[in-house]
TrEMBL record:
Its main location: cytoplasm. InterPro entries: AceGlu_kinase-like_sf, Asp/Glu/Uridylate_kinase, G5K_ProB, Glu/AcGlu_kinase, Glu_5kinase, Glu_5kinase/COase_Synthase, Glutamate_5-kinase_CS, PUA. Pathway: Amino-acid biosynthesis; L-proline biosynthesis; L-glutamate 5-semialdehyde from L-glutamate: step 1/2. Pfam families: AA_kinase (PF00696), PUA (PF01472). Signal peptide: none annotated. Its EC number is 2.7.2.11. It is an enzyme of class 2 (transferase). The keyword Nucleus does not apply. It comes from Massilia terrae. One of its GO terms (molecular function) is glutamate 5-kinase activity. This is Glutamate 5-kinase. Keywords: Amino-acid biosynthesis, ATP-binding, Cytoplasm, Kinase, Nucleotide-binding, Proline biosynthesis, Transferase. PANTHER family: GLUTAMATE 5-KINASE, ISOPENTENYL PHOSPHATE KINASE.
Length: 372
């Protein structure tokens, strides 16, 4: 068996609280420096990497001199806000040593459920990757209460994998992978080397967190793999202190537990788009635009739109019709219905003059477009 990471070009790496904070004793600077070095090697292989890192609360607890995890939600939020400064600082320094810039991105689950914010987060992250930056993501703990109680970045990692259609999610934790039972409790537990993401028998094997600092345990990791698989991303769960784990995975060595996605990436995305049956609006295209979309695999530009039906917001799914009224494609719109009415039949270079801003030269980018 070869690791799926060898073929993956866009990878989400999630490092858990139990790892990054070395069981709660502040941030483990040398471990973080080693992951940064490995990610730099992955980048040199041409892979794009997004890091989802926990550890803000644990670092904040240390800085604010809490000896135990506070139970008061607002004290937890204060810890997260203080500790996030430490996290950002250490990642920036560690990646700088390899000539790589980092960006701090704080997200909530609600951000990713909102179509417009979803599209904005997606565009920002893909732009950062294009600019050669490593985005460092954490939950925006200041504004949420539910997530902070459960403290689960595994789910966030999967949501980000769906968001930017990553090929793989690597969850680094304090165990060598998923075992048949919690190895802290069952000495006979054995490592599961490979399984299909979403296989329900895995959920029964996975227990809660074993350490005092980790929260979600294995169950959130198994569920994250199931979620990541919805957009076709494979998941690997591995021990974060395994020597050069990320680099060896990229060389094809199977390490930890590999949970493969049953559906291919593009099929999964198409399915998601086609499932949005209730599209909010329609645009009618001229023959030239129909040709570009259906024959040449191009994006839809406003110049090819001749009419708009219905109301829709940025980020919603709209249907593209040809002049006879036949639906030919569906996709996520970069502009609202009223904006499209103003920019249709115009070239993309005129968008700024008409609207005063540009969300992108395309009305629907080809990555967000499915032909019917
Ligand atoms: N089947 C299992 N296999 C491996 N670890 C398990 C299993 N069930 C429960 N665990 C526990 O999950 C813990 C990892 O989860 P957690 O502490 O939340 O880590 P992280 O902070 O990396 O998210 C392990 O230390 C282990 O005790
Ligand atoms: N966002 C918080 C907690 C997230 C968290 O601990 O998640 P996990 O690593 O999945 O146990 C933090 O940075 O401390």
């Amino acid at each position: 068996m070869k690791s799926v990471i060898q073929q993956a070009s866009r990878i989400i790496v999630k490092v858990g609280s139990s790892l990054v904070t070395n069981e709660g004793r502040g941030l483990d600077h040398s471990a973080i420096a080693r992951w940064a070095a490995q990610i730099a090697s992955l980048r040199a292989l041409g892979k794009e990497v997004v890091l989802v890192s926990s550890g803000a609360i644990a670092e904040g607890m240390l800085r604010l001199q809490f000896s135990a995890r506070p139970t008061d939600i607002h004290e937890l939020q204060a810890c997260a806000a203080v500790g996030q400064m430490g996290l950002a600082q250490i990642y920036e320094t560690s990646f700088r040593a390899h000539g790589i810039g980092t960006a701090q991105v704080l997200l909530t689950h609600a951000d990713l459920a909102d179509r417009e914010r979803y599209l904005n987060a997606r565009s920002t992250l893909t732009t950062l990757l294009r600019l050669g930056v490593v985005p460092i993501i954490n939950e925006n703990d200041t504004v949420v209460t539910d997530e902070i109680k459960f403290g689960d970045n595994d789910t966030l990692g999967a949501l980000v994998a769906n968001l930017i259609e990553a090929d793989a999610l690597v969850i680094l934790t304090d165990q060598r992978g998923l075992y048949s039972a919690d190895p802290r409790k069952d000495p006979a537990a054995y490592l599961i080397e490979e399984a299909q993401a979403g296989d329900e028998s895995l959920e029964a094997m996975a227990g809660g967190a074993g350490s005092s600092i980790g929260r979600g345990g294995m169950l959130t990791k198994v569920l994250a793999a199931k979620r990541a698989a919805r957009s076709g991303a494979h998941t690997v769960i591995a021990w974060g202190r395994e020597e050069d784990a990320l680099v060896r995975l990229a060389q094809g060595e199977p390490i930890g537990t590999q949970l493969t996605a049953p559906t291919a990436r593009l099929t999964a995305r198409r399915q998601w788009m086609v499932d949005h049956l209730h599209t909010s609006g329609e645009v009618v295209l001229d023959a030239g635009a129909v040709q570009k979309l259906t024959q040449e695999g191009k994006s839809l530009l406003p110049i090819g739109v001749i009419a708009v039906n219905g109301k829709f917001r940025r980020g919603e799914v709209i249907t593209c019709l040809d002049e006879s009224g036949k639906a030919i494609a569906r996709g996520l719109t970069n502009y609202t219905g009223s904006e499209v009415r103003r920019i249709m039949r115009h070239s993309s270079s005129e968008i700024e003059a008409i609207l005063g801003y540009v969300e992108g030269p395309e009305l629907i980018h080809r990555d967000n477009l499915v032909l019917l």
